Amino acid sequence: MFDLTGKVAIVTGGNGGIGLGMARGLAAAGARVVVAARNTKKSAAAARALGSGALAIEVDVTDETSVNDLIRAAVAQCGRLDILVNNAGINIRKPPHVLSLGEWRQVIDTNLTSAYLCSHGAHAEMQRAGGGKIINIGSMMSIFGAAYAPAYAASKGGIVQFTKACAAAWAPDNIQVNAILPGWIDTDLTRHARDQVAGLHDSVLRRTPAARWGVSDDFRGIAVFLAGAASAFITGAAITVDGGYSILG
Fold first, then answer.
1. Domain spans, the chain
2. Of the ranges 2-6, 41-45, 71-75, 196-200, which one carries the lowest mean pLDDT score?
3. Is the N or the C terminus of the chain less surrounded, counting Cβ atoms within 10 Å?
4. Contacts within 8 Å (CB) and 24+ apart, 99-102
5. CATH number given to 8-183+214-243
6. Which residues are catalytic?
7. 188 and 144 in contact (C-beta within 8 Å)?
8. How many CB atoms lie within 10 A of CB 27?
9. Per-residue DSSP letters for 160-210?
10. pLDDT, tens digit, for every residue of 61-87?
């Protein structure tokens, strides 16, 4: 139920943070992982650490040609595509009256349009393989709002609805599409948030029943579950991985 031997997985933004944690889980379960990101040096190091035939491919997830090149290169080198993790993301922390249109588009394109481009590109290969798994990364901002994250919250709310649309459209192709909604996780992205948002660290600890920040390896298990046969009848779901943060009003 949790064996991914012979499967091929692309993880965008898989060279660090949550993406790398998920890549570790997939590789440990037997999948061959393609680390897809812009920083080639960092991606190569991540692929070496993953082992199990992992490889790194450079991609700009906001560019359709680059994404299609990624899909073709992954299939050419690995022979198939079974799993796609749409993890690449950024945030620009400004209130809506300060955020520029260019900044809005940058966040939306990186976080949401990229998921469309990668999923659109992967569909034919998964259909050819007889099925597949797509895992989209949302956020607590898929549920809650924040004055300093208008574009990020919009993109992550959109991820949940996009997940549902793809799940409905591709169920006949045996492609399950689900979303993960991380809580406050200790990554480079949230370290910047702690510098920019006064009192954030203590606030997160007070609200989270698990009384800690998450770490990237907290995503190893959920990645394997959603990528494997154990989740064959789960599609269109949005699963929180947040130490209980979202259960408190």
1. 8-183+214-243
2. 196-200
3. C
4. 99/150, 99/151
5. 3.40.50.720
6. 152
7. no
8. 25
9. HHHHHHHHHHHGGGTEEEEEEEE-SB-SHHHHHHHHHSTTHHHHHHHH-TT
10. 999 999 999 999 999 999 999 999 999
